[in-house]
Amino acid sequence: MSYMDLGEQEVRNFIFRGDDLGMDPAIDKAILAAFKVGGVHEAAFLAVGPSAKQAAASACYANLPVSLHLAYASEWDLVRWSSLTGLLDQTNGFLPAHPIVLEKAPIVDLIAEAKAQAMRTNNLGLTFESFNFHIDCPRVGLATAIEDALGVPCRDIPFGRRPNPAWYTSFFDLSSADTVQKELLLLDFLEKAPAGRHCVVSHPGSDQASLSKLCSKALPDRRLWAVDYRLSDASFLTDIKALKRLGL
Q1: Element holding 61 (H helix, E strand)
Q2: CA end-to-end distance (rounded Å), the chain
Q3: CB atoms within 10 A of CB 99
Q4: Rounded to two decimals, what is the model's pTM?
Q5: pLDDT recorded at residue 166
Q6: What secondary structure, in 3-state letters, does 75-87 show?
Q7: Which residues are bridge partners to 133 per DSSP?
Q8: How far is 160 from 25, CA to CA, in rounded Å?
Q9: What are phi and psi of 164, to 5 degrees?
């Protein structure tokens, strides 16, 4: 999506990204539905995700552009996944709940896992021109080493320890935006954004029962991300009238 400021002849590019493709069928369906109507422009593909194989096939069929959603963490308590190399798994056989646990892991192991996730993405028929981190980057400066290893740039958004490269001038976190004010807040962001590249990141999910299987009821804050935020994003990004009002 691009807007042209005719006064200064400067282009503003907006990329609407749906994260976690390959994590769960409810998420995959929601991202593809949003892509079909223009609410999502690309998806961040989770190669270690439980539904990665099926999601990749659907993305290929739909010609959905993807980036590599590099995962060094498995954060849910009911659905977990392991590293592809086996080098970064904890004693329970899964990746840690947060990448900070891997801060002291050998960098060769971190890079090996990045290569393995990239290879699996390609083997599933998907090509990607950039990568970003699922949750946080476990080590400052790691993004540069992975760029060299994979030969593609890191185009991340500045959360936590994630790198803040010059690729994106700014970003908008659609998922945690107030549900009632989501459209107005996003419209304000689109109108005020300066010339440059801007990322609108979302986490769509379409089936409450399926999404609820990610996280137990004992973790209410996590369930906001598991269920509420995802259902809200999916509803908004497939609302054709709302998308038209935004110029999408």
Answers
A1: helix 52-62
A2: 7
A3: 27
A4: 0.93
A5: 60
A6: CCCCCCCCCCCCC
A7: 70
A8: 28
A9: -120, 75
pLDDT in tens, 106-145: 999 999 999 999 999 999 999 999 999 999 999 988 999 9
Q: Residue 20 in 3-state DSSP?
A: strand
Q: What are 197-218's pLDDT values in tens digits?
A: 899 999 999 999 999 999 999 9
3-state secondary structure of 69: strand
Q: What radius of gyration, in Å, describes the C-alpha atoms of the chain?
A: 18
Residue linked to tokens 């691009």: 2
Can you read off the two tokens belonging to residue 230? 């995802």
Distances, alpha carbon 231 to alpha carbons 106, 159, 241, in Å: 38, 22, 18
- Angstrom distance (rounded) from CA 137 to CA 195: 28
Q: Are 40 and 237 in contact (CB under 8 A)?
A: yes
Determine the average pLDDT of the residues in 26-36: 98
Triad 29, 33, 38: Cα angle to 5°: 145
Q: Token digits for 236?
A: 């908004």
| Tokens found for residue 227 | 């269920």
Calculate the alpha carbon distances from 220 to 50, 217, 227 in Å: 23, 6, 10
